[in-house]
Design a protein that fits this description.
There is one protein chain. The protein is mainly α. The protein folds into 2 domains: 1-35; 51-109, no CATH class. It has 3 helices and no strands. Helix 2 (38-76) packs antiparallel against helix 3. It is flat, with a radius of gyration of 20 Å.
Length: 109
C-alpha cells in the first residue's frame, strides 16, 4: 500500500479514536461529578473493566487463530501468490477465533 494512502487513513483513525476517548471520559466524569449514588459509580467502573477484559479476550482469541492460520498458509501453500484457498484458510481461522471467544465467554460468563 502506498504511503500516500496510508498516512491519511492513519490520521483519520487516530483523530476518531482520540475523539471517542475524550467523549467517553467526559461522560464518565460527568456521571461521577453528578453526585450519583456510590453504587451507580461503582457499577459503571466495574462494567467498564469487564468490557475491557472481554475485548482483550475476544481479540486474543481472534489473533491467536489468525496466527495459526498464517502458519498453516506458510506450511501448506508453496506458491508466492495469494490463492483462494489461502484466503479461505485465513477467513476460517478468523471465524474460528470468534467462535472460540463465544464459547469461552459462555463458559466464563
Amino acid at each position: 500500500m502506498p504511503v500516500e494512502i496510508l498516512i491519511p487513513i492513519t490520521l483519520f483513525v487516530s483523530i476518531a479514536w482520540s475523539i471517542r476517548t475524550v467523549v467517553e471520559s467526559y461522560a464518565r466524569r460527568r456521571i461521577i461529578e453528578s453526585h450519583g449514588s456510590e453504587a451507580l459509580v461503582r457499577s459503571l467502573l466495574e462494567g467498564e473493566a469487564a468490557r475491557r477484559r472481554q475485548a482483550s479476550l475476544h481479540w486474543g482469541c481472534v489473533l491467536v487463530a489468525l496466527a495459526a492460520g498464517f502458519g498453516l498458509v506458510e506450511l501448506l501453500v508453496t506458491a508466492d501468490r495469494v490463492t483462494p484457498g489461502a484466503l479461505a484458510l485465513l477467513l476460517g481461522a478468523t471465524g474460528g477465533g470468534n467462535l472460540a471467544y463465544y464459547l469461552l465467554q459462555r463458559r466464563l460468563g
